[in-house]
Amino acid sequence: MIAAERPHPEAAKLLIMDAQGHLREVPRSSLASLFNPGDLVVANDAATLPASLSGMHVASGAPVEIRLAAWVSVRDLTRFVALVFGAGDHRMRTEDRAAPPSLSPGDRFSLGPLVATIERLLDHPRLVALHFLDKRETVLDGIARHGRPIQYAHVAEPLFLWDVWTRIAADPIAFEPPSAGFALDWRTLGAWRQRGIGFATLTHAAGISSTGDPVLDLRLPFDEPYRIPEATAAAINQAKSDGRRIIAVGTTVVRALVSAEGADGSVRAGEGIASVRIARQTRLRVVDAILTGVHHAGESHFELLRAFADDAALSEISALAMMRGYRTHEFGDSMLIEYQGRAPLTARLE
After folding, report:
1. Mind spelling out the 3-state secondary structure of 81-114?
2. Is residue 118 domain-shared with residue 173, that is, in the same domain?
3. What is the largest CA-CA distance in the chain?
4. Residue 313 DSSP symbol
5. Cis ω before 214 (30° cut-off from 0)
6. Fewest C-beta atoms under 10 Å: which of 40, 71, 250, 324?
7. Does any domain span residue 81?
8. What is the pTM of this model?
9. Do 131 and 10 belong together in one domain?
10. How does pLDDT run across 113-142, given as a tens digit for each residue?
11. Are residues 256 and 302 in the same domain?
């Protein structure tokens, strides 16, 4: 499969696997005609921070790039889990980036208008707990002014912040875009509303997709905070009570809903931390289908898809996506996978 090289490609494709394992292809613009009246689509409305900060390791004078990767606490906006890279930029593959200078607790970084210090090392030469030494408002202003979106080598041209915001973006707490949401547009949302298909949002702090180190990548996804509004929880619980379906837009929505699931299968409103790793053995009681990007086997996103379909089905999806030239990564094509073992989403294209 080929990586999407630019934001928001035209003529994006959608590969659908229903609950019986049947595959079909449609233009992604056909989303407006999918699903049944009464179904509820749930999306992540988190906006993306400009979480890549260039600067200097003060003790050595060496250039560095800091990639903010996770919140230590979303209530303390001055502390982050971060990756530290040596000289270079996004045009070099993350796997090939230079190691940072030797790091120790207490080391400082000069990052444009901001100063940050290492509170502790996190069992990997690149991974640290970082504390900005400025007030919360100053930190957010400095990140907004000095930071850039985290970017990888498959997109050559520099990205701007508006490139990594979905159309429903609200609170800026994500470190990389909740990219399944790029499939949504106002025409689709309007058509769903006219057809009686519900739409609700939650806010989940989507983390980084790659650290550049395969061993460290095994820890992904890091713990991610989420917030589920009362109205969204009520809509989900009512839909499940009525026997209607829940379609999650993206892996972050699935993580949030599984994390917020009560013993009785209902979804709790409020804030929480998504720390569970969803994989083949995970029982899905809330979500009936997922709209997601095209992922490779071995990635954390692909592991989550194993909760929806067995390995043979996912291999079939991957083989067809490769044969048809589906594009991967955040600006790529999409897949809609129904949870195997449940009745299919019976609506077909109009």
Report:
1. EEEEECCCCCCCCHHHCCCCCCCCCCCEEEECCE
2. no
3. 64
4. H
5. no
6. 324
7. yes
8. 0.93
9. no
10. 999 999 999 989 999 999 999 888 889 899
11. yes
